[in-house]
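Structure tokens
________________
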Amino acid sequence: MLNAGDRAPDFSLESDSGKTVSLADFPGKTVVLYFYPKDDTPSCTREAQAFSEALQAFAEAGAVVLGVSRDSALRHRKFRDKYDLGVTLLSDPDLAAHEAYGAYGEKTMYGKKVMGTIRSTFIIGPDRALRHVFRGVKVDGHADAVLALVRGGGAPGAPPARPATEKRAATKGAATAPAKRAAVKAPAKTAPKAR
């Protein structure tokens, strides 16, 4: 089981463009490597779209994003073209990368134990050390959280940052709570004067 601070295993996989892609192809870059179960399924599509929409922001932060599944390069191309995805998709049919990263194993689906891809994301620093490891990823908001960590430098072991939208909501709630308490207390202070 890989953890933050461990060295990231290298890989050499065929991409949706037909080229072989390795970790060594990105010197000096942060690499976001995410494993997902299957092309063109609802959650996997939303995850790929979210990472694709944020690609420019990842690039500005010095990072590249690579998605990995067991699907063939041909299926990846169809998936990419159908949804106009920008993220690079890598094919790992023999599970070599999945197993090296601990992204394949027993999981629970619909109450049953099955073997399959464990939705996982790894932030790999330019020094090839793992900065963050996400296992059992929930898709919604995940790309935002990963981007926040990449922008912040991603110190090993730090908790994932909340997306900006969640922070705004939390701040708004905190700002309005004292006002409500003050409004409740005010009548008690002014009641004697009214008599």
Observations:
- Confidence is low (pLDDT under 50) at residues 154-195.
- DSSP finds six helices and nine strands in the chain.
- The domain at 12-161 is CATH 3.40.30.10 (Glutaredoxin).
